């Protein structure tokens, strides 16, 4: 309820008297004596905006005007805690950035003046309510409700209805904050909404008690609205005040700061705390605009004066404002003692009140910033009350606390197990490549580079499960670096291998020693190192955060982002495209012979991995929470199969060939071109049968040749120089 509804001249009187007090106080201060105070008031009302029709509500509109007010129009702004820091959360909301082109207005637009003021000068403030805090929900009644500290909202309504005649009752819920306040106060009458008591108390809104609770709240609202919910849902506090004065309602829900003017208006009006003495509170904050032309140290000095004990006592006397004093100091602090002597009943209320910090109640590890809640929840609550749509409201409360990826249970465990088994297989293939690294069929495709590629593919195997909780900023930083290494370990060594094959096919004769290209290895290492250092700097210096994909009305999944995300990804994509294009140029330059080598399979690997990354990301982003678990499990299986296919196309076929031919012997001086071609890269049942037949023939032939060679050596021991040697490769020979 606006103060001007009670006192029409309030705005003008407040501005004049505050400025007069400030000028008198600073008339001898050389720094402040030339400054004056001017106040403008924002008329904040909520339900006159329709989120569904206009895409905005008053909460959204106030945020927009607060952000635009930074253009030097105001030097300071007073907002409540549901506005200040409503953009801070581990999982950010995309609405602020999309609508206002700024990520965190609370941090980016206003000056932190803590450095200008000594903390010990503020110890007279209540530690939980600072900078002009106000206690929102006091009830002003006509002395009809007794023992309200022992009864619930439901009991209050029942007692009023049992009177003869029944007392009329009107509660204004046109203000979005009032609607949320009433809901949480009603819940606090039946459940302990304390994280100290139960850190998972918020689950009551969507577990098995959710339906029962919202059904009870629905019946409560319908009863005091006399089955016409629009009488309350779209009733503003100003109108409720007039209804109360006219006797059409037996009590009025208003601010404690209205206590003085209301109780002096009518002797029959008395004040009490809400049922169970539980009241939602609002904390007021005085913000300094960092675009102001006035120096921050001057503004900080003014801000300190505006929140000083002297100024708060002045506002309490003149306007009935409730100061932010720590009442536990009332026996030792004369100023606090004098206030309690002036307003003993309010001090008693403040000391006995059980405070509900609404923003804190909705805050959890993975909850969105409060802006999204204040923006979307009130309209949903109105729809729930108008149409009795309980399930939609339960879903929203669940989405406030949980993400689609939380609570997967057995599906997450199975995904980890399958991923781990596939990863072990991938590392086993790496071991086999190392084991057979000197076999010509492995040696020709650069086993050391292949092991790096295999390591990169193994990183792809595990990358999907890294999308699962827990989430933390450090994990997001690590994941960015992990993804960078993942792609570079695959693409850059692949580029080196295709370059080496290109050299083989464009040389008249290439023997194994010429493949020991240390310069190429150094270039590859330097490239990976440069990109890794660049991304490491981005990861650990930029402002990293999670952005929620979706919203509380559907489902949310966190994706990491950072301030330079767009520019960095654009540059990084160009870099990866360049690697891919050069890779394909070498494959094309090799011509049809590339098919024999299977270098064209690199194109498939790159294609599969890129398409796979895109498909996997789209799946986890757009699936609803109901089917997320089973679908994520199948996505993990699909991820593992794609990576296994890439391993096979890369080197698995050659490992299989070598293992199927353990007795295959070759001449070390033969041209390595003979070993580039490998038909095992062709897939299909019929071709597989033909390969097995050929392999059997090769094995039989090698055995005959080996046996004949042994006989020849035995019959001519004195002339070894005439023998054609077919030495098998040595697994333990030195690196080429």
TrEMBL record:
<dbReference type="GO" id="GO:0016020">
    <property type="term" value="C:membrane"/>
</dbReference>
<feature type="transmembrane region" description="Helical">
    <location>
        <begin position="602"/>
        <end position="623"/>
    </location>
</feature>
<feature type="transmembrane region" description="Helical">
    <location>
        <begin position="520"/>
        <end position="538"/>
    </location>
</feature>
<dbReference type="Pfam" id="PF00003">
    <property type="entry name" value="7tm_3"/>
</dbReference>
<feature type="transmembrane region" description="Helical">
    <location>
        <begin position="408"/>
        <end position="433"/>
    </location>
</feature>
<feature type="transmembrane region" description="Helical">
    <location>
        <begin position="478"/>
        <end position="499"/>
    </location>
</feature>
<feature type="compositionally biased region" description="Low complexity">
    <location>
        <begin position="709"/>
        <end position="736"/>
    </location>
</feature>
<protein>
    <recommendedName>
        <fullName>G-protein coupled receptors family 3 profile domain-containing protein</fullName>
    </recommendedName>
</protein>
<feature type="transmembrane region" description="Helical">
    <location>
        <begin position="629"/>
        <end position="651"/>
    </location>
</feature>
<keyword id="KW-0472">Membrane</keyword>
<keyword id="KW-1133">Transmembrane helix</keyword>
<feature type="transmembrane region" description="Helical">
    <location>
        <begin position="445"/>
        <end position="466"/>
    </location>
</feature>
<feature type="region of interest" description="Disordered">
    <location>
        <begin position="707"/>
        <end position="736"/>
    </location>
</feature>
<keyword id="KW-0812">Transmembrane</keyword>
<dbReference type="GO" id="GO:0004930">
    <property type="term" value="F:G protein-coupled receptor activity"/>
</dbReference>
<feature type="transmembrane region" description="Helical">
    <location>
        <begin position="574"/>
        <end position="590"/>
    </location>
</feature>
<dbReference type="InterPro" id="IPR017978">
    <property type="entry name" value="GPCR_3_C"/>
</dbReference>
<feature type="domain" description="G-protein coupled receptors family 3 profile">
    <location>
        <begin position="413"/>
        <end position="648"/>
    </location>
</feature>
